[in-house]
Amino acid sequence: MAGRNILSVPEAGLIILKELAKGKIPFIIVGGAAIALHGIPRSTLDIDIIVPAEKDTTAKLFLLAADKSLLSRDKYIVNIIDKPYLLIGQWITLEDKDGREFIDVFFESEKEFNRLLKRAKRIKTKQFSFYVASLDDLQVMKKVSGRPIDFADIALIKEKKKLTLMRRVIL
Question: Could you give the CA distance from residue 57 to residue 50 in angstroms, rounded to a whole number?
Fold first, then answer.
């Protein structure tokens, strides 16, 4: 991405997101990057996305990854892309040839993906637009994950919601 990265998300990951958008591969940003994109101070080393567990989407995703020289140790997924119901709940990590992880891709049912998309926040840049999971959905996801960083993120999300509500009352 040309210019300065004003977001607290990895530059290499943003380049891949642009390619996903250009290739019409549907995705929603979740995880730490999504929290940062909601304006909550949070750094992250990679970007987590959710895609619908569909044959065409998965095939396009793997073709894009190969075209950009990104690798996944989870190559077995290619063997089940014609059975989307087996993809649901699976994930892959895309990394460069040096082993740096850029994007974690989580596969979700089409119904759940569309449910998340309805509540997602659309972000437009000069070069492309994308969706970020809602704070409410992120809070639920973080609770399910249950790691210490996730509980810290929940506290930050609650604080952001509280400040947003206070601003609405004042204005």
Answer: 11
Q: What's the Cα-to-Cα distance from 99 to each of 6, 13, 29, 107, 129, rounded to whole Å?
A: 25, 14, 22, 22, 28
Rounded to two decimals, the pTM is 0.88
Contact 102, 94 (CB under 8 A): yes
Helix and strand element counts for the chain (H, E): 7, 6
Question: Three-state DSSP class for 122?
Answer: strand
Side chain identity at residue 31, one-letter code: G
Which residue stretches of the chain are H helix? 11-22, 31-37, 55-67, 84-87, 110-119, 135-145, 148-170
Question: Could you tell me how many residues make up the chain?
Answer: 171
Residue labelled with tokens 């999504």: 34
Q: Write out pLDDT tens, residues 150-163.
A: 999 999 999 999 98
Name beta bridge partners: 132: 29, 121
